[in-house]
Amino acid sequence: MKIATGEVDLNKVETGIPLLPPGDYEVKVVKMEVERNKANDGDLLNFKLVLVDPARSRDGEMLNPGFPIFGRASLKVTEKYDPIKRHLVPLMDCFLGTRPQDFETDDFIGKEGRIRVSVRNDEQYGESNEIKGYIAKK
Question: Do the Cβ atoms of 69 and 25 come closer than 8 Å?
């Protein structure tokens, strides 16, 4: 069966994931899990957030609620990096509004919060959105 694309120049069609412009966005946690890192010497916290409200992409495309934003945080403590201070406490303040001593990743599922997003440029992968901060609940 033949599929007609009309007058569209397929060489000019962008197929990448739309980028959010830098800013603050209301999001909901839909997935959060702990996995081993590639070196197998520590853990990573991987999570998927989705937009709560519609937003425009950097190119003006309408992005509906549910548009995904992915994040990850190393949980490996080093001399220069403390994951509790750098990621876990800000995540708790943003999504839970409290700092429980012990928690499960499932405690975050369905919770809403506000994040700060930027655009980073990676030599290998190009431009992508990056979570730069978690805005604490008041």
Answer: yes
